Amino acid sequence: MTSFTPLHRLVIAVAVLASFVTFLDGTVVTVALPAISRELGGGITTQQWTVDAYLITLSALILLAGSVADAYGRVLVMRIGLIAFGIASIAVAAAPTPVVLIIARAAQGAAGALLVPSSLALITAVMRGEVQSRAIGVWTAFTTAAQLVGPLLGGLFVDFMSWRFVFLINVLPIAVTLFLLARLRLPEQARTTGVDWLSGVLCAVGLGGVVYALIEQPHQGWSSPLILVTAIGGAVLLIVFLLRQRRPQPLMPLSLFRVRNFAWGNLATLFVYAALSLNGFVIGVYLQQGAGLKATVAGLASLPITILMILLSSRAGRLSGRFGPRVFMAAGPLIMAVGALLLLFVSEQFDYWWQVLPSMIVLGIGLSLTVAPLTSAILGSIDESRSGIASAVNNAVARVAGLLVVAMLSTIVGGTLNLGGFHDAARVTAALMAIGGIVSWIGIRRPVAQRENEPVTG
């Protein structure tokens, strides 16, 4: 087995820390939502917008950021993103009203968009083959752990300090990443073509319009002129965005989707990450508002998933590099679907150990089998010269999935996140996971390079 070189280790450390900041901030907020709405007001709508304001800009601008990283250099773009993310985090922590909070969260998402594609592109640019699969496995273990440990950290800050300190957690990782980034010496590609800024605007405004309509329609109704205008206008802008991608040097090269594993892998990503986002949001909020747990205890609920991810993800990435990703990408989501259905045992007489823990264990096993092979299958199918935009597209798909499912939360849970709504969310989560597994089994194939590199036997 090929070992990591010192350069590989430094690249992995930078990639993990830079992505850690973005993913941590996307999930650490979950258990803080009840405290935020209590202090600033706005109920479930404020909670939805606190999550989705971040995801709108992150999702919409990740594509633009991937193109910018390929054009101007991944290290430079990452450095700018880290500094901007730190400034926006301080603004969120100091927000006096829901409107200021939501605007600052949107700024955080915009800065975060600069980090994720650049970090993964560093790995895919420096490493290929089984070493790349192992590196992505390590990246996946720690960045996914960041998403899962976020609720625990958030709960500790909410219970013992204030929800405002939740958004300052990332200051230390940002400082460490900037220090390591200064030591990283990589030959950056020369700037190639211009960046399609108009496509970035079309994508951002289009997504914003659709999400606004989905979040606000339970209060205003589909007959509201504002809801109709934002929904239809947003959809039209997204269609124009897609049509514009047929021009030379597009922001999102549609030719990427002619690569089988890239196309089917992103379709699987859409369903799996929608399910993960829905499950994370609902568990973080219901365990506090429905089951009456403290924020810290609610955050601890998902700790078994974190532990299993750290223990198993790197190994799953290594096995995927050796045997191909298809079986892992099919089995993992199906196992997670079973885990989601186990949450139907949650009742009014709440008991974490018998009603929630089994689900967390099964979800953790399934997630560990899924994420590293999924990422490796998608990015390993694309040439290194387009690794930045390929990473950006995949991350955009994952964030858009979470964005849309959180925007539809009121519809999914019937307007109130009570026990019945919690069970409805568990069923929808299981269905989305199962579809993701089926899509993977149908569409994913073992990369040709892996088959060619196998030793000849017999």
What is the topology?
Blueprint: H1 6-28, H2 33-40, H3 43-72, H4 74-93, H5 98-113, H6 116-126, H7 129-160, H8 171-183, H9 197-220, H10 225-244, H11 260-289, H12 295-300, H13 303-323, H14 326-341, H15 352-355, H16 357-379, H17 387-407, H18 409-413, H19 419-443, H20 448-452
Which series of helices and strands comes N to C?
Answer: HHHHHHHHHHHHHHHHHHHH
Distance between the termini: 22 Å
Provide a count of the helices.
20
Q: What is Rg?
A: 21 Å
Kindly describe this structure.
- This protein is an all-alpha fold and 458 residues long.
- It has two domains: 7-183 and 251-452, Growth Hormone, Chain: A, CATH 1.20.1250.20; 197-250, no CATH class.
- It contains 20 helices and no strands.
- α3 runs antiparallel to α17, α4 (74-93) runs antiparallel to α6 (116-126) and α14 runs antiparallel to α19 (419-443).
- It starts with 5 loop residues before the first helix and ends in a 6-residue tail after the last helix.
- Residues 450-458 have low confidence and may be disordered.
What is the compact description of this entry?
This protein has 458 residues and is an all-alpha fold. The chain has helices spanning 6-28, 33-40, 43-72, 74-93, 98-113, 116-126, 129-160, 171-183, 197-220, 225-244, 260-289, 295-300, 303-323, 326-341, 352-355, 357-379, 387-407, 409-413, 419-443, 448-452. Pfam families: MFS_1.
